[in-house]
TrEMBL record:
The lineage of its organism: Bacteria, Pseudomonadati, Pseudomonadota, Betaproteobacteria, Burkholderiales. NCBIfam families: PRK00094.1-2, PRK00094.1-4. It is found in: Cytoplasm. It comes from Castellaniella daejeonensis. Its EC number is 1.1.1.94. This is Glycerol-3-phosphate dehydrogenase [NAD(P)+]. NADPH binds at residues 14, 102, 137, 252, 277. Keywords: Cytoplasm, Lipid biosynthesis, Lipid metabolism, NAD, NADP, Nucleotide-binding, Oxidoreductase, Phospholipid biosynthesis, Phospholipid metabolism, Signal. SUPFAM superfamilies: 6-phosphogluconate dehydrogenase C-terminal domain-like, NAD(P)-binding Rossmann-fold domains.
Length: 327
């Protein structure tokens, strides 16, 4: 999306073959082999060169770095940045740093913004935020329209993202609610697994709608307890991303759920190395819910099925057998 909006976009890929293919042949053979990437897109495997491109490039007005790695790689890339960033940035304009990952650290239960703050202590010129919302990479790479949100405590970061992404394809909305956006992004993956399980069991569209709606209530309950704003969860990064991921066939989290509902084992499904962030963050979400005394029944059911040896049909029966309550 960035490369179609501006011609000075450079991708850093740690694998030199990937970088060569993206930069020279404009194709990503590993993830999107059938899609032609914008011809102006450049790529490098040299981290220092990529950073210099941002810091020393001609357009100092809106210097933007987007970290497109999964949760498991976020701390690592931030540490690389911390080592490579100069003490004083050339020029006077700030550098804006966005991340796209959706999840919770399985070991420390940290949210992405907490990992960024810990590994990259802020300087006056580095402004940070999360880029999130309903966005299958394949559709974005095909040039189809997409609406996203950038959450940052610094409104300039939202404005920088708007300036960089807005074009014919993307709209970016700004918000200050970093926690709400990150909770929505992480928990919708858990709910997508639940919906996938339900669809794999052929429980019907009524059941799926119930899971989406009650799943959203669960996401909002945790998000508000952690300091997020209630209305964030009916926006792009809450309801929007939940609907996309719980119903869209391109979702890897949903695919995991469908395969489990059809009787496959988690180990077998993940053997090919697929990224399904909901699997890695479900237990952390459950633990955070317990810490805050919250009822998260769908998250509990997903954990029971993924890690507790509970059969999907048993988990559904347990959800239906819960005591009646007000909506
Ligand atoms: N794929 C999507 O449609 C999509 C859309 C929106 C948000 N997201 C979120 O963005 C994040 C990344 O998703 P993805 O699908 O691109 O994941 P991915 O697993 O395909 O990883 C993206 C790239 O990051 C690289 N990477 C991983 N760890 C790294 C490290 N330590 N250093 C350098 N590179 C590293 C991988 O090799 C890969 O090329 C996830 O948290 C996902 O939830 C994905
Ligand atoms: O393929 P998934 O399930 O990781 O979902 C991708 C994006 O998060 C959708 O917004």
């Amino acid at each position: 999306a960035l490369a179609s909006a501006r011609s000075d976009t450079l991708i850093w890929a740690r694998d030199p073959d990937q970088a060569l293919s993206i930069g020279q042949r404009h194709v990503n053979p590993r993830h999107l082999p059938d899609i032609a990437l914008p011809p102006a897109l450049r790529a490098t495997a040299d981290f220092g060169a990529a950073l210099a491109h941002v810091l020393e490039g001609p357009d100092q007005a809106d210097r933007l770095i987007v970290l497109g790695v999964p949760m498991s790689g976020l701390a690592d890339v931030c540490r690389r940045l911390a080592q490579a960033l100069p003490a004083r940035v050339p020029g006077s304009a700030p550098v804006h740093l966005l991340w796209t990952c959706k999840g919770i650290s399985p070991d420390t239960h940290q949210w992405p913004h907490q990992i960024v703050a810990e590994t990259l202590p802020g300087t006056a010129w580095l402004r940070t935020g999360v880029l999130s919302g309903p966005s299958f990479a394949r559709e974005v790479a095909q040039g189809l329209p997409v609406a996203l949100a950038v959450a940052s405590r610094d409104p300039d970061t939202g404005r920088a993202a708007q300036a960089a992404f807005h074009g014919t394809q993307a709209r970016i909305y700004g918000t200050r609610d970093v926690m709400g956006v990150e909770v929505g992004g992480a928990l919708k993956n858990v709910m997508a697994i639940a919906c996938g399980i339900s669809d794999g069991l052929r429980l019907g569209t009524n059941a799926r709608a119930a899971l989406i709606t009650r799943g959203l209530a669960e996401i909002q309950r945790l998000g508000v307890a952690l300091g997020g704003q209630a209305d964030t969860f009916i926006g792009l990064t809450g309801l929007g991303d939940l609907v996309l991921t719980a119903t869209g066939e391109l979702s890897r989290n949903r695919q995991v759920g469908v395969a489990i509902g059809q009787g496959r084992s988690l180990d077998d499904i993940l053997a090919g190395g697929m990224t399904a962030e909901g699997v890695r963050c479900a237990r952390a979400a459950q633990a955070l819910g317990r810490e805050h005394g919250l009822d998260l029944p769908i998250t509990d059911a997903v954990c029971d099925v993924l890690f507790g040896g509970v059969a999907p049909t048993q988990a559904v029966a347990a959800l239906l057998a819960r005591d009646p309550r007000d909506e």
